[in-house]
Amino acid sequence: MSGPARVFDLSEVGRRDLNQALHDASDGDSFEVTNPRGAHAVACGITAEIDVLVRGSVGYYCAGMHKRGRVLVEGNASTGLAENIMSGLVHITGNATMSAGATGCGGLVVVGGNAGARCGISMKGVDIVVGGNVGHMSAFMAQAGNLVVCGDAAADLGDSIYEAQIFVRGDVESLGADCIEKEMRPTHVETLSRLLVAAAAVPAVNGADPADFRRYGSARRLYNFTIDDVDALEAAQEAA
Amino acid sequence: MTPTPSHDGLEPLKASDPDFWHLRESYTFDRNVIAEIRRAANTGIYRIRGWGAKRHLPTLDDLVFLGASMSRYPLEGYREACGTDVVIGEDRAERPVHLKIPVTIAGMSFGSLSAQAKEALGRGASAAGTSTTTGDGGMTEEERQHSATLVYQYLPSRYGMNPDHLRVADAIEVVVGQGAKPGGGGMLLGQKITERVAEMRTLPEGIDQRSACRHPDWTGPDDLEIKIGELREITDWQVPIYVKVGAARPYYDTALAVKAGADAVVVDGMQGGTAATQDVFIEHVGIPTLAAIGESVRALRELGVHRREVKLIVAGGIRSGADVAKALALGADAASIGTAALIAIGDNDPAYEAEYRALGTSAGFWEDFQAGNDPVGITTQDSDLSARLDPVLAGRRLANYLQVLTIETQILARANGKSHVLNLEPEDLAALTVEAAAMAKVPLAGTNWVPGVD
Prior knowledge:
The structure holds 2 protein chains of 2 kinds. Chain A is of the alpha/beta class. Helices cover 14% and strands 22% of the residues of chain A.
């Protein structure tokens, strides 16, 4: 049942009332949140196909563990934006601090401005598009999914990365352990183009040319321990 | 682990040989040490193994109960009631956890354990009226199905972390650390990263997984408070939230966990087991369980929450009802078992001695849980090996064992005149060693002396 957005003014009602209403919502409902004033865990744990518009900046874990629906934040977000997102869309117009999209398993996270350190840390299938720059150690231990950075990436990008892919348009200060630049093949251009279109509401993303990006991923040199066996070598030499 | 080479085909010297008494083994470089140096020199990799600390440590065995006497009268066994139930999270959760017995099953992952082993733990715990706990790798359907009360661990790696599982859990345990490796992340070696495990953890098959040791989206107790708030919001304040720490700085760690909003603090001493960790971590990081309990209790008492809003669960080397009763007397609300539960369902079963020998070990010494070739089918993902474990029979063994732990705990409580096991108190205890007296802060037997206390 869709209708006019229900408005929750967080200067008057607590986040518990807001989140409970979101958890009780039906597909098609829409909500507007005003005066968030940096509140934590705003609109977390959503399970229905709903729309939530947050007018203002939020604290930690906004849209945490998001499962379905869309959350749009007109402002900035603190640590752990859309952490462990499963599906759906979380879009903020401003900047995100640390660990945006951390451990996300699916869906799309769009950051209009810059994202801080460890953006996409341990990501497990989420797509993240950042209009500006990302901080150090972004995509640390990233397992799956795509991180698209339209600006620059700070030090140690993709440290200990697994099978996630990173696309950066600007400069990369340094790559982390086991992260290397990789060839951009047609399949990667296709993935990148799709994500740039999906995040085209961001001015810095709109019209971006996939040809301007470079791709980074795992060298897969840390996947298994390096174990020597001198005894076996010695035995083989004696046999020969 | 490869079998240790024999002495060029010869048996080691025996005492009957005249040369034997010329041999003096070095205390510093004994044969264990020599074997480890040789192993390191051959492979170039640190030793990884399962189980907990194997070295000698001060333990709960170093305490005794005083029992009843002239001034305290005992309760009649079997005739007079002695309660064993524990409730966790009444203060904040809509659905607190009710345990019938003061013993829970510690977190052990599907991945490190076979599906059959997880099912056996669920069956045994459910029959005994207590909880099981997931591990690093998510919740399986079988596990939820067979566990009446299931605690969902929230770990640094977030492998398999699914909000739908969070919402069907009976409690959430935020894992900061574990006794086997305070400050270390999980490990699961390639032999055990099968297709199903790889899919659950979103990892390539066959890799040597080294999990994160820090949570990806919070750092320190102030962040943890916000994180716990988020977990409560996502689960609509339905279930209790525990915080698990390895025994490192238990006084401060417990106080900070309380401040962060935990309903229960789980403190895991260095005897606590693991499926795979660096040996150097297992043996050299953390403090013994005996030394941790009193410090945690001190923090809870000072904050006015002991035996009230915040419960204390103690783990790490708990083997018997005596261990459980002593932990409770020192102030814990429940004890948690991992290694002992695995032994109860069949770990290190002498019936498989021939197979242990083929692996270069022997029943009673098997510790290579990381290797994935466990003869009894517990710490493996090999379908032929895991099929050896009958989850129904193994579950029954665990239920029996939990019953013994509970009755033994009641025996000791009644002997000290207590009508509920949680009425046991430090005054019921005496220490047999100066170390134990200092660590547990109970008097040395026959004295009024508690070292370090005025």
